[in-house]
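User: For a reading group we're discussing how well predicted structures match intuition. Take Serine-threonine/tyrosine-protein kinase catalytic domain-containing protein. Before you show the prediction, I'll give you the sequence so everyone sees exactly what went in.
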Amino acid sequence: MREKPSPSTNHKFIALYEKCWQHEPNTRPKIRQVISELEELNNNEPLVVSENVSFKEIETTLEISKTPENDEVNIPSYDCDINKYEL
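Assistant: Thanks. Here is the predicted 3D structure of Serine-threonine/tyrosine-protein kinase catalytic domain-containing protein, as structure tokens, for the group to look at:
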């Protein structure tokens, strides 16, 4: 079970991270594609910050993320600084 996106989240960003969640690794986008799409989002669409998000919605999202079903994968804390790697 994955968390539900906030109503104010950019729909193209939602589509991108949902592609990254695909079960089969071969169906997930490559890192270059992810970076390219993120750059496109950053350049083409202004950041919209919604002030209409309720405290209850935030609280519910946090509670969902604490549930045992969301602990399916125990990911070690590797260094994920992409700037250290040549693409």
